[in-house]
Amino acid sequence: MKVTLSTWGAALAVLMLLLCVSVARAEQVKKINLNTATSVELDSLPGIGPVLAGRILQFRKINGPFKRTEDLMNVRGIGEKKFLKLKDRIRVEPPSKKNTKPAKES
Questions:
Q1: Architecture of domain 32-92
Q2: Residue 77 contacts residue 52 (beta carbons within 8 Å)
Q3: I need a surface site. Which of 2, 15, 30, 83 has the fewest CB within 10 A?
Q4: Domain boundaries, the chain
Q5: Dihedral sign, CA of 23, 24, 27, 30?
Q6: Residue 100 pLDDT greater than 60, yes or no
Q7: What average pLDDT does this structure show over 6-32?
């Protein structure tokens, strides 16, 4: 079986295309907003189980919205090593205005 230069070129082109597609898919991972994430969404993050998800929600409830992603390290059980594994999968945006209405005075 004789392999020609054009066959190798076509194979290389296909491999390059596959590489580009896989890189593009990796970049499309949806980042989870720490200020609006549910327990289920947090639990889907690597290294975050139901216990840590609960701690994140409790921290948010007590301290208010996260201002920076790095604030996640203030949650018990999340140190720098775990944060570095999560940082590309999380984001912080302020809660929407409809969720931040001041309480009515009576």
A1: Orthogonal Bundle (1.10)
A2: yes
A3: 2
A4: 32-92
A5: negative
A6: no
A7: 69
